[in-house]
User: Fold these one by one.
Assistant:
Number 1:
Amino acid sequence: MKILILNGPNLNLLGRREPDIYGHRDYAALTAYIGETCRRIGAEYEVFQTNHEGVLVDMIQGALETGVDAIVLNPAAYTHTSIAIADALRAVEIPTAEVHLSDVDAREPYRRISYAGEACVATFKGKGFESYGEAICYMAEYVRNSKDAH
Ligand code: DQA
């Protein structure tokens, strides 16, 4: 079981970036949390952050070659703008969970649109790091269930 965790723009600035919304813990703390969660459930994982939309598309396409079973994706601001990322998810057909630290539906109206989310099997939002924890566990279960069904 291999899970690819992808993080979009400005998430590298966690801790210093709008802490009232995103919390005081930094990106290294997030990757440590993700690592602990994946080890606890016995999943292999890779975690990656980029500020570039096309790099996220490349990473999603690249997942076809590296035996990734599921993706956990926080596209950050590209959530609300990127049809390219949504199309890449549909193209590879690797089951993906959308994740947000904040509750995007309770913020500015433009954050309620999620193109990526339309190509995902589930969305986890508004729980800080725990949004990632829930998404990782959900996708591990999702993959196990779909392997059993075949
Ligand atoms: C975010 C929410 C987005 O609206 C925002 O642009 C981000 C982070 C979140 O994790 O809450 O950069 O994806």
Number 2:
Amino acid sequence: MRRINIGLIGWGTVGTGVIKILRSNAAHISRRTGVSLRIRRVADLDLKRVRGIKIPPSILTRKASQIIEDPEIQVVVELTGGLESAQELIIESLRKGKQVVTANKALLARKGKILFREARKNNRRIFFEASVGGGIPIIKILQEGLAANKISSVLGIINGTTNYILSRMTEDRISLEMALQEAQINGYAEKDPTLDLSGVDSAHKLVLLASLAFGGWIDLKKVYVEGINEITDEDIEYTGGLGYTIKLLAIAKQTASGVDARVHPTLVNRHHLLASVDGVFNAIYLEGDYSDRQIFQGKGAGEGPTASAIVADLIEAGKEILTGNLNGPGSLLIDDDLKMASMGEVECRHYIRIPAVDRPGVLAQIASILGSFNISIASVIQRGQRRRGVVPIILMTHLAKEKALKKAVARISRLPMVKGRPLRLRVED
Ligand code: HSE
């Protein structure tokens, strides 16, 4: 059995997990797959930090170049998490003839076209199973398991931090700030959770999923993104009363006018398969023309699940090296930019919370504005305690176009009796 030599750049939580798996399951992996994986070198700028495992000092280095320049290393695992520097590392590695494994979803979503093109030019491949859904092998499912299908919809809960926060707000009616604090104390949220809360992390992952699902490249700039920052415990309560759970969904649908790709907090019917995916779990729901509806669920982050995905890629990279097929099928189709549908044309039902002064005539004014945009109201709730005379009016609409809703809500927010920004959430039916 031939050995595959690996160079690991970036020794953090996931890198530690990879080393642990290769130590504890090495014999199992080689017996099962015919590939013997060995870490030949580990590079990190900080070699002093305590990581809970020991590595022979002889294989440690502070210089990534010692990995990239080493002719014995066949696969480079990039786990630095950076952007420009990571891009350089990957390109250099490919040019030196190495296969690359990465979990860097932000980099791939932004610079995927350059990177995958570079891989192809060098007859090498970039593996990225760990970039979406942690331990869920969703990339392989799309590339291989469902390759026979035309996929029409991808719906994902693909950010564990926000799913944990929304779940905690739902379970115990705590505020978003408290739930975030709790997530940070428990080590679920990043120190800077901006990319998670703003929905951008989900958008990065959606670019990769949707590009694979629909067979072309999705431009990140054309993905509509909204985060969870404005969700209050009040919204959790009202939507719960209406039979919904709020989830940050990454949605991509193939429509007649192109791909509709968006990330936003969404009202999901309590009985939908995704509604019960709680805490740090991720789930991806797919609809294929022959496979029909499927859901894949698992831990979307953390040492073990993410390292499991990295090692799966290492095994695949190793198999390709052993068979001499270094640029096998499965790379992203980057040559065709997929046509994107316009967000303004997206049609959803909506939940709207409007903080308004509790006076006669307010509801009539709001209804009149909605009517003028041809938006039909399905139900209205107004209850709860007055906060300085302000009571939220909760509206559910029938199906309406995004562009109409946007204009109508902007006009409603300018009414003198409306005190604060209304919140609008879309319903996924
Ligand atoms: N910050 C990400 C999350 C980590 O919360 O899901 C995994 O990509």
